[in-house]
Amino acid sequence: VYFKNLSKQKQKEVMEKNGNNHKLRVCVATCNRADYSKLAPIMFGIKAEPHFFELDVVVLGSHLIDDYGNTYRMIEQDDFDIHTRLHTIVRGEDEAAMVESVGLALVKLPDVLNRLKPDIMIVHGDRFDALALATSAALMNIRILHIEGGEVSGTIDDSIRHAITKLAHYHVCCTRSAEQHLIAMCEDHDRILLAGCPSYDKLLSAKNKDYMSIIRMWLGEDVKTRDYIVALQHPVTTDIKHSIKMFELTLDALISFNKRTLVLFPNVDAGDKEMVRVMRKKGIEHHPNFRAVKHVPFDQFIQLVAHAGCMIGNSSCGVREVGAFGTPVINLGTRQTGRETGENVLHVRDADTQDKILHALQLQFGKQYPCSKIYGDGNAVPRILKFLKSIDLKEPLQKKFCFPPVKDNISQDIDHILETQSALAVDLGGTNLRVAIVSMKGEIVKKYTQLNPKTYEDRLELILKMCVEAASEAVNVNCRILGVGISTGGRVNPREGIVLHSTKLIQEWSSVDLRTPVSDALHLPVWVDNDGNCAALAERKFGHGKGIENFVTLITGTGIGGGIIHQHELIHGSSFCAAELGHIVVSLDGPECLCGSQGCIEAYASGIALQREAKKLHDEDLLLVEGMSMKKEEVVSAAHLIQAAKLGNTKADSILRTAGTALGLGVVNILHTMNPSLVILSGVLASHYVNAVKDVINRHALSSVKTVDVVVSNLADPALLGAASLVLDYTTRRIY
Fold first, then answer.
1. What pLDDT shows up at residue 9?
2. What angle do CA 216, 222, 223 make, to 5 degrees?
3. % of the chain residues with pLDDT over 90
4. CA triplet 680, 685, 689: central angle to 5 degrees?
5. Which residues contact 223 (CB under 8 A, 6 or more apart)?
6. What is the pLDDT of residues 562-614, one digit of tens each?
7. Catalytic choice (56, 157, 531, 717)
8. Does residue 192 sit in helix, strand or coil?
9. What SS3 string covers 634-677?
10. Could you read off the pLDDT of 121-158 as tens digits, one per residue?
């Protein structure tokens, strides 16, 4: 009693605040039979409290169309005075008719709202008519209460529903998920009421003992409970052609299933007339097993679905209200995708033949599921009325959005201006793992180097550790990190940031998602690409390739790689395998390559290939010449071969000339394929090969490409600079 009196006192205070016991003038606008089933319980509640509320009813949309049953009559039968009837539907069968209907409603509604001057308008759902209502009210500074916002279905209705949400000042939602969606959409939590669906107030109290007379009236005298089907299917306005096809398949399946079926006409939507034509073409209105009707009063419809063997179609009623009775439902297509459903709903997302729908009917028909109360507990209306009474009309009309906190804009702060825009560059080599802070001008501000671990787990852990350390240090050196660029050996999908598979030099490095863990750890955008591609990007931004439209970069190091810039853009290829230049075959019977083939450039000219040949000479005591010495434990390398050649070792010199020729032949193939204006040799072996490559071009290339420039890169660290350019190029020009 105490709390009841307290509640009355609070309501009295609200009324006094609203001015001398001013009644709240509520306009309820209903557009069709479906929204009236949700609005009617609220209208009855408002009408039952005349000392608090004054109700005005506006009827528009398909309520006033004979083809859809003139459903305004059921509003009159419920003893509601209809203040205004607005004919707003433009006849037509396409999307344009829907747009014109919205426009017609927008033309007619201002006059009505000017006359009524409601304190608040109640709008339901996600229909195009409701969008016109909400738009008119919002522009005329009338408060809007939106019913069933925050839900997800999967068609254009989603967009309309969320648009109405942004126009509405108050929200009544049906489920906890819908409430969370509204909050995520930046709506004020204090203006959101989780009430449940108003129609459930009637559903859960429906105890009509004479339901058999209703079933017989609509389906025939010989029909038994749980032995008939209710079908209700609407066109999907975003894919009308497909939804018509699915409706045809549904009718074919229902004819084959051979059970008594009540088919309701579809909503007023683009494509509805075509669906009616399909019904008539298949003779549904005259088929002995079918009853086709334009409208069934909601009270009777409740009894029909409550005792049906199954409901089929794509109406929201199937996934929402019918769950209250545990009636089996077959939900067809995408119109209700995203809706919360009970276990009574079986989804048929797509059907190319009637067999899939027929099989669903065989699975569902006649079952009985537990009753579901996802959408309400039968007490929505009292909550909504209490919510309406709490509205303070003296509060500012302008709605506020509750945006999540964001950092202040410091773009005019002198410290921000003086910061150096930089990238975090990662180079994943066969031996070392390197991380560097690289400035916009290509200056390596700070660099970290560690041995590259052998296992995937250790390698990823070290990458994250080094990146976090470098990002922290960036603050101390006054650098603002824009993102992370990663250069790695192997084939990379740069769109997803995944290393598809790597070279044998980097073990356990296949199908590795590098972007996600690094981005999660640093909260920065991450780009990943192949080391050869990164070298080409480095040249384009900082090196010889700056301003050049078409050029090729060849890396000559432990392996042979490269990148191709065509019309100023990097080429990745259809399977991210472009510019694997080291695996151009220059001899059919050449030495075996790490890729498994024979005669690749890499098998001749890479550091590994030169080391292999140096070991052979050393094992035969043919490597060392006068002026050379090696410690006993020293490992033979390509450097020893180059030194021997310089000191007059003819065999070493012959190996280097063969390697240079192989590389040159590969370059000739590239020239004949891509016709670049520049070839850049990069890496530790570049200076040893440049003359040999030029010589091979002069001897073997077509005269039209012999004028190509072949230069040695002047970049000290192309892999790191290329990784940095992934970030610096894209973050500054906003191209991803």
1. 61
2. 65
3. 64
4. 65
5. 215, 216, 260
6. 999 999 999 999 999 898 999 999 999 899 998 889 999 999 999 999 999 99
7. 531
8. strand
9. CCCCHHHHHHHHHCCCHHHHHHHHHHHHHHHHHHHHHHHHHCCC
10. 999 999 899 999 999 999 999 999 999 999 987 678 88
**CA dihedral for 124, 129, 135, 136, sign (positive or negative):** negative
| CATH class, range 413-543+726-735 | alpha beta
Q: Give the Cβ contact number of residue 568 at 10 Å.
A: 12
- Residue 531 catalytic? yes
Contact yes or no for 529/726 (Cβ under 8 A): yes
Give me the pLDDT at residue 335, please: 82
In terms of CATH architecture, what is 209-364? 3-Layer(aba) Sandwich (3.40)
Q: What is the DSSP letter of 428?
A: E
Is the pLDDT at 14 greater than 60, yes or no? no
pLDDT in tens, 435-472: 999 998 899 999 999 998 888 888 889 999 999 999 99
| CA 210/CA 229 separation, integer angstroms | 19
∠ at Cα 145 (144, 151), nearest 5°?
120
The terminus-to-terminus CA distance of the chain in angstroms comes to 64
pLDDT value of position 86: 95
Tell me whether the CATH fold assigned to 209-364 matches the one assigned to 545-714: no
Burial of 16 (0-12, 13-18, 19+ CB in 10 A): exposed
Task: Please tell me the chain's helix, strand, coil percentages from 3-state DSSP, rounded to the nearest 5.
Answer: 45, 20, 35
Structural domain spans, the chain: 20-197+381-390, 209-364, 413-543+726-735, 545-714
446 Cβ neighbours under 8 A, 6+ residues apart? 436, 437, 470, 473, 474, 477
For residue 598, what is the DSSP state? B
Percentage with pLDDT > 70 across the chain: 93
Over its C-alpha atoms, the chain yields an Rg (Å, rounded) of 37
pLDDT tens per residue, range 252-264:
999 999 999 999 9
Class of domain 20-197+381-390 as given by CATH: alpha beta
CA 585 to chain centroid: 42
Closest CA to 528 of 424, 636, 438, 416: 424
- The pTM of the full predicted model, rounded to 2 decimals, is 0.53
In CATH, what is the architecture of 545-714?
A: 2-Layer Sandwich (3.30)
Q: What are phi and psi of 671, to 5 degrees?
A: -60, -40
